[in-house]
Design brief:
The protein is of the alpha+beta class. 56% of the residues lie in helices and 21% in strands. Strands 1-2-4-3 form a four-stranded antiparallel sheet, with helices on one face.
């Protein structure tokens, strides 16, 4: 082997060694970046968990306040018992007939769904009340006001009404989505 061939072999070997080192460095740098990214995500998740835990402790502290407990206890004493369902329906029909409103249907949507913010032992009874055609707008609004003002354990969530095409003072249809708060047995 002459010197020229030896030099070319050594030069090719150096290129291969430096190429492998460069590729190894590039590959290691990519893995390092991925690990840094994963560590940053873990750090952000930990910070968010710390914030959520602090918020939860703050809420627990607020609900352990004697004034809040006293308020929730007072609220649960005002809410009628579960047997109130039939009484509510009777009162509803009475208010409707007194106001000249025709209730054509009451649909109970679910039995005892736990409401989002209620005292312990209180559930809501969501229902839809359908009003018949021919009721006047004024009578309907008076009925809704009477329902909300006289039954403190009722909350009207949505209200839809369609005016009569021939007489704008009359309704062709109307419905109420209502929640009735009751004590769970």
């Amino acid at each position: 082997m002459n010197a020229r061939k030896l030099m070319l072999v050594l030069l090719a070997s150096l290129v291969i060694v430096f190429g492998a080192a460069g590729f190894g460095t590039y590959y290691a740098y990519g893995m390092l970046q991925e690990n840094v990214r994963a560590a940053n995500h873990v750090k952000i998740d930990a910070e968010l968990n710390d914030q959520a835990q602090a918020s939860l402790q703050n809420v627990q502290k607020q609900f352990s306040d004697p004034a809040v407990e006293k308020l929730l206890t007072a609220m649960s004493q005002v809410i009628p018992p579960d047997s109130y369902r039939s009484q509510f329906v009777a009162d509803l029909y009475k208010y409707a007939s007194d106001g000249g409103i025709s209730v054509t249907g009451i649909t109970f949507l679910d039995k005892g769904v736990v409401a989002t913010i209620t005292p312990a032992g209180v559930v809501t009874m969501p229902l839809t009340i359908t009003i018949g055609a021919g009721s006047s707008y004024d009578n309907f609004t008076a009925f809704v006001k009477k329902l909300e003002n006289n039954l403190q354990h009722v909350q009207v969530n949505t209200l839809t009404m369609q005016p009569d095409a021939n007489s704008p003072d009359l309704l062709s249809s109307a419905s109420l989505n209502v929640e009735v708060f009751i004590k769970k047995k």
